[in-house]
Design brief:
By secondary structure, the chain is mostly helical. It contains four helices and no strands. α1 runs antiparallel to α4, α2 packs antiparallel against α3 and α3 packs antiparallel against α4. The longest helix has 26 residues. It is flat and about 40 Å long.
Amino acid sequence: MKNHPVIAICQIIAVSLVNLSAASYAQSPEQNSGPRHQVAKTRQSKMAQSYFNQGKSFVTKGKHKEAIIYFTKAIKIEPNVPNVYIYRAAFYSRLDMF
């Protein structure tokens, strides 16, 4: 069975994002690493995780367009999380929205 071109593109994007994520974690710590910054970052991470979970919930209900919306919200908050891009790309391809 021949792979669909979109699947191949998604795989390339996924590998690139994993490499990007690894590179960003390898960089030196941010200068703004005080307590207030950490609390704000934690809130952002929790909100992004909540959006990601809501997106996955829509997937289980078969509501792929809604899932894409929530994956996009998660990406806007935490752009260095490859899994969210992978999920979003997968459902874009399922809806032929590429």
